[in-house]
Amino acid sequence: MDYMHKLFVILTIVALAVHGQFGVRSGQQQAQPYRLAIESQEVFLGETITFQVQVQNEKDQQSSQPAPVFPNTNDFTVVPLPPQNSTRSSISIINGKRTESHTVTTTFQYQITPKRVGTLMLPALQVTTNGKTYQTQQVPIRVLPPEKLDDLKLTTTLSSEHCFVGEAITITWRWEVGRDIRSFQFSLPILESDSLHFPEVEPQIDRSRLNEYIEIPVANGNRFIGKRRQGAGGRIIIEFSRPAIAKRSGTIPVPPAVVICNVTDERANAQRQRRGGLFDDDFFFGRSVPTRRISVQSNETSLEIRELPEQGKPKSFSGIVGKCTVSCQADPLEVSVGDPIQLKITLQGPEYLEHIRLPNLANQQILQRQFKIGSDDEPGVITGNKKVFNRILRAKNSNITAIPPIEISYFDSQSGSYKTASSEAIPIKVQPSKTITAQDAEGLQLDNAPAQAMTSQVKQRQGGLANNYSVEELLVNQQTTNGKLIRSPLGIAILVTCPLLYALVCAIAYLRTLADPVAKTRRRAKGICLRSLKRSKSLDDVLNAIRQFLGDKLGRNPEALTFGDVDEPLQQAHIDQDTWQNLKNLFNECEASRYAGKASIDLDDAKKQAESIVANLENLLK
Description:
alpha+beta, single chain, about 25% helix, extended
């Protein structure tokens, strides 16, 4: 009986847990075409949970389901997620009459984060489907306060308590752990602030010290990479950071961060050992460790964002905050008037370059006076800690001897003043370009034409095109037919020689394949890689395609091929620095994604980068 009693208690607990996990359905009738579901009705302050509204409608009545109307609430932060659709079809035959129906179920999801402690009511929603409007019931949620524990301490710090609009700061979270943690998840409300921009940052991971890194799961689905180290008293210190760029002025609160974790419950463990019993036998299930779920909250702080001063602001200022340098390269350096010159402008200095834009070069008077300047829509490409822009210039006259310095204005937040960075002037040689007019082509001279037009460098023929021979006198009748061509010696030679040449080429290619069996693999490497990249569905697939390509080209085993394995042969092939760096970054990004869980690079961007790298290496690795 003791065994049956324990089994009944366990099954009851499981049933209650399942009921609490999968939603609230009390008060709903089966006929109502909607259903509510919530992840949990008991949460900690700052914890994010998922709330679902499933709405059914008939496919032939309504092609798209409108989202439920979610009332404004001061008790929760509500973030809608993309809806999901599913279709169910049914066929019934009654008295020989066939009836077919289609039902579309749309699941609307919301991330709910409570703002205060207590029993809060999730407001009722308006759901419209099948031409009718329904009012859902309110959902009670019990919000528990976080615990204050000496051996679990969470702090939020800012690299600076004030900054200027456009300036970057770093937010760092530090977690001191003095007990056994089984699982955890962070909630970082500051990431939802509309006053800050959070640029994507590639994690810098030392692969020789992977044991020092730890994956940080966040409630909104993001995952950060943190570092852990041993602290005083046997504690573990976990730190992770995120850069932020101020978007607008004002003082903004930085709400507390929250970590929800499962910790070992020594009290429950001790009580379990004292009781003993049938389920203490670890033969079937192994030893289980009792845990309890707790919440830890960090401190709250604030950030003062200052507006950039108007005094001394240059007209060409494009919003760059932080010291920067500018350098330029031009190609070609010898041109004629009107020929295109590609100007490569490289900015370096600000730590985060994603939002940096090049100012309008037309505002630089000397440059605008001497050159025609191409479109300034190109946003620039980030390469390492630099951002490169390309512009097209065309010289207006042959007296130009150099491209003047390019000036970039920026705001130095350390001194609180505007400054200008300048590149070096680039010497060029511009040749005059003769413009041939219609009068030159026709050989005509007008009485009112200026004298300089009559002394053209183009040597004119008396009468110009007007003195040409007639078309009939110049053309010779060379009409022929296919029959004449085939019977001619030239036709017979072509018919005999072409098959012989084709057979000879095939024989030579076959003999070359026998002499060097790896050559065929090298020649086919690019095509195989590009086809693999098109089928890639993850960064692992992209990395495997690159490894296969390099293995085929270098005669190496592609499995587990690292960048270090191919670095030396690539250097010997005189690979250019940009391709080398892009290949290294792609290797690091794809390999780090396995550890980090989510990479900062998009799959489509990774494919494009891989295709560009393969195209560059194809010409070097013959």
